[in-house]
Amino acid sequence: MKAHWLDRPGAARRAWIAFAVVLSASVLAQLFIAVEPHFAAEGWFGMPAVVGVGACAAMVLFAKLVGAMLKRRDDYYGDGSGE
Amino acid sequence: MSGVLAHPALALFVGAALVAVLKGRLRSTVALAAPLAALALVLRAGDGVHAVWTFAGAELVPFAADPLSRLFGIIFAIMAFGGALFGLDQPRRVEMPAALLYAGAALGVAFAGDLVTVFLFWELMAVGSTLVIWSVATAEAYRASLRYLMVHLAGGTVLLLGVAVHYVASGTLAFRAFDAGSPGYWLILAGFLVNAGAPPLSAWVADAYPEASFSGTVFLSAFTTKIAVYALLRGFAGEPLLVWMGLYMVFYGIVYALLENDMRRILAYSIVNQVGFMVTGIGIGTAMALNGTAAHAFTHILYKGLLLMSAGAVLHATGRRKCSELGGLFRSMPVTTLCGIVGALAISSFPLTSGFVSKSMISQAAGDEHLVWVWLALAAASAGVFLHAGIKFPWFVFFQKDSGLRPPDPPLNMRLAMILFAALCLALGVWYEPLYALLPFPADYVPYTGWHVVGQLQLLLFSGLAFFALLPLLKRTPTITLDVDWLYRRALPAIVAAAERSRRVVARGWHAGWSSAVEGVAAHVHRTHGPEGIMARTWSVRSMGLWMLALLLGLLLIGFAA
Asked: Could you tell me if residue A55 is inside a domain?
């Protein structure tokens, strides 16, 4: 059976290269458009990218912290006790 | 009376009754025709009051329409059609009529002109949605449905109390914007917020919705929380508390979804997240914010329905719902994968999808009002949406590792429902003018500017980079995350059990002490008055003679002394 194109050797590497190109293009495009920010800092070069990475990193780390305190096995309520 | 007969909800109620008794192809036809008839009636309903009843001296308006009610009526009818199409193969016969009843009740609220009608349909929604969960007939679903019903009946009670206080103070039951701080204001607000999934009771969404069937959850995602958004839009626009409550919901949904392993619970948390954007918009309260909220509710129903259809298709095909047990399904479920990706892009507000033309209006409103921190929080949350729903859901379900599962795409009706909703998500992203024309205020917003598109793409694409960079931290584990529902699922029952144990100990002690006292008295009486007791035993003649002699001597002494 013919392998799916995503399963072929090198597909992941090619996907990463394409992703890097798209990422770069999204930042460089800022140089060619009229920047109309709501607030001054929003219009800084690459600022939305920084917000994207920074916000995601902060949320993942905060989620890990919450998880360290509140995570339980998924059968925690499953024994029927307490319900 | 003729006005009431043209009420869109009636089409769904009649449809529900027929679907409950019919079988086969006719049943399917009615299930699909009823939402279409409701849609036709919604489009036919002109602005104004269409029916007035007087009950116990109060004026009730069971059917009134304006642009806001029409917008929600249209999307509710479309959702009912899509959900019915997706769920035609559902073997549980209770689900479809319950779902149509539920959708009809949502239309009843949307076209209610008074608070009593709102309350009655509000409660009918709780009954219909509970039946949808119940129809799965598993122990987990039954318990979840009872918790769900408990929360919603409590919310309904608070709402009814607020309506009563409001009526006594104002003398009117009209459902329109409430004066801030007026009697009943906070009670009615609290009643509406319970259905919105607002804190502190947000947990019911992720507790109950994922327990419904593969098709039931699609219905559930659309009506309860969005009718709350509708009610808040009509009654509480500009309430500042809602800004902060909405932002809490936005980040609560992201954090809990990031920690979740069950694909449908991820999407349930995501509902709270998206409703948070809407609640924030209602709190901002400008025409731009309210338009954005209404538009976002419309688009959200479509893309969340689509996401839950794709998750439902996976559940239908594999019987699995945990991300840790899924993966690699793109190989055998291409239609489901593609539709899921469209839904994921739309919820992330990617340009050319419906989410882009709606959510950005709420951010725009925050910017226009110079609410810097609110705007920044919404921007960060947009990144978080892509993180938890835009990438996480399709990545862990359709890609990541090869789970070895090779299920086919679902049956034709389910594929058609997904394709229809995916097409709507894309079409509204490109031809957004018809949606803007339905909004409650004139909308001259232009979503496609160079900066808006580039800024949004930067934000989302780099969020994607962060996802893959942080993937080791996002590895799925078979866990859940405790929430406020722990209080009524574990803590409260534990407290009640402890109180019961204490009562038993006290009762035992009391019983033992009382028994001991009674037994002591009985023993004493037995000792003194029993057969061998000093007061009852048979005495010898000699001792009796002695005692009689002593008695007579005593009497003589008393006689002499006297």
From this structure: yes
The b/e string for B132-160 (b: 16+ C-beta within 10 A; e otherwise) is: bbbbbeeeebebbbebbbebbeebbebbb
CB atoms near residue B318 (< 10 Å): 17
pTM of the model: 0.90
| Domains contained in chain A, number | 2
* In a domain? residue A67: yes
CA–CA separation, B436 vs B428, rounded Å?
A: 10
| A40 and A20 co-located in one domain | no
The minimal CB distance from B255 to the residues A22, A38, A59 is found for A59
Between A and B, how many residue pairs show a Cβ–Cβ distance under 8 A? 155
Number of H-type helices and E-type strands within chain A: 2, 1
Task: State the nearest Cα–Cα gap between A9 and chain B, in angstroms.
Answer: 15
Helices and strands per DSSP (H, E), number in chain B: 23, 3
* Residues 6 or more apart whose Cβ sits within 8 Å of residue B461: A19, A22, A23, A26, A49, A52
CB contact under 8 A, B455 and A55: no
**pLDDT per residue as tens digits for the range B448-489:** 999 999 999 999 999 999 999 999 998 888 999 999 999 999
Does B475 touch chain A if contact means CB atoms closer than 8 Å?
A: no
Using an 8 Å CB-CB cutoff, list chain A residues near B259.
63, 66-67, 71
**B 484-543 → A contacts, CB under 8 A:** 489-490, 493-494
Tens-place pLDDT, residues B326-359: 999 999 999 999 999 999 999 999 999 999 999 9
Distance from CA of A62 to the nearest CA of B (A): 8
pLDDT in tens, B57-76: 888 999 999 999 999 999 99
Place of tokens 């394709």: B419
Question: Is residue A42 located within the same domain as residue A54?
Answer: yes
DSSP B478: S
Nearest to A53 among B364, B462, B489 (CB): B462
Looking at the structure, tell me whether residues A19 and A40 fall in a common domain.
no
In terms of domains, do A19 and A43 share one?
A: no
Kindly state whether residue A83 falls inside one of the protein's structural domains: no
**What value does the CA radius of gyration of chain B take, rounded to a whole number of Å?**
33
A56 in Cβ contact with B383 (< 8 Å): yes
The helix or strand, by DSSP H or E, that contains position B104, with its residue range, turns out to be helix B95-110
> Within 10 A of B214 (CB to CB), how many other CB atoms are there?
25
Tokens of B221: 């995602």
**CA-CA distance, B201 to B124, in Å (whole number)?**
20
* Interface predicted TM-score (ipTM): 0.92
Domain that holds residue A55: 36-72
Chain A residue numbers touching B381 (CB-CB < 8 A): 55
- What are the tokens at B484? 């406020």
Q: Are residues A27 and A50 in the same domain?
A: no
pLDDT in tens, B385-398: 999 899 999 999 99
A80 found inside a domain? no
- Residue A71's φ and ψ, nearest 5 degrees, are -75, 140
Report CB contact under 8 Å: B255, A39. Answer: no
